[in-house]
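pls ignore typos typing on phone
zinc ion + seq
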Amino acid sequence: MEPFQVHFLGCGAAQPTTTHRPASQVINFRNKLFMIDCGEGTQIQFRKSHLKSSRLNQIFISHLHADHCIGLVGLLATQNLMQRTAQMHIYSPAGLERLMRPQLDFFCSPSSFEVVFHEFQTKTSSVIYEDRSLRVTTIPLKHRMPDCGFRFDELSISRHINPQMCAFYDVPRYWFDRLRSGEDYVTSTGDIIPVERLTSASRKARSYAYVSDTIYLPKIVPLISGVDVLYHESTFSDEFALRAKKVCHSTARQAGTIAKDAKVGLLALGHYSARHNNKEEVLLDEAREVFQDTILSWENSYIDIGKTPILNTFKSKQIETTPSQLLSVLDPPQSYTRSAEE
Ligand SMILES: [Zn+2]
Ligand SMILES: [Zn+2]
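k done
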């Protein structure tokens, strides 16, 4: 099956720790890369992921808090050093281009490539990217500034040829690729043979939703309903539920509730407050009390959507989805002195 992987580059909240980096993920969809958020140091994390930056042409920024976009300048400056020529498309709420242009003019001039900014509105859900095989839709969120999550939907799935039926209808071989992509067969006399008669559906389309910083927001449930994997921010444990509400973040239990109500396949937690550093299993336990199929996202690991077991590491070790073994990482967690804010 063609890849649909979610690579976790940064799983911490705004306050960096020696364990967690600020928000960023890369989706490897059929070997095309799509970045979501780009906190400080993302380019280093990206390099550790062993993904090719030449395959990255689209970046989606959920909101303009520093921990979600301040890594862009470094990433783009390095692309310029590498003499990139392909356009880089960046999708974000209003304001990013005004912020970035002076920095790009200063650090990336002359530039070997063009950066194209696309602003999206954050009040209602809309399609912001679509090609033949993938659609990206926004998920409006409620935070301390305009903010959206993103839903990724696989569109075209190759169908299985039924050789007996194709022989029966005398379908020439050169037509098989069109059948696989879902076209009906038109005979030399103009009769239409429905593709369903000549092929069978191979599998269900895969989907992923990224819910960035947000207060607990049940109204997003219909927008993420039934996705295979949901990433939902889970900055705090129950103990800090009041603070979560005050600063427009969610608890792990609230993330679990959203996952349960949306009937998703798997929930990945992330955006951990520095106060939970090296105690992330508290978040996991609280989310699992509501929604059992929950994991902790972790830097330098990835999820392979549509494969079992769903969790793998860069070392291709097969991991059981139990808390202690959840994710094996290249950089083991280090000791750290916690700080106060998110
Ligand atoms: Zn954040
Ligand atoms: Zn934020």
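The first helix runs from residue 42 to 48. The chain has eleven helices and 19 strands. more later
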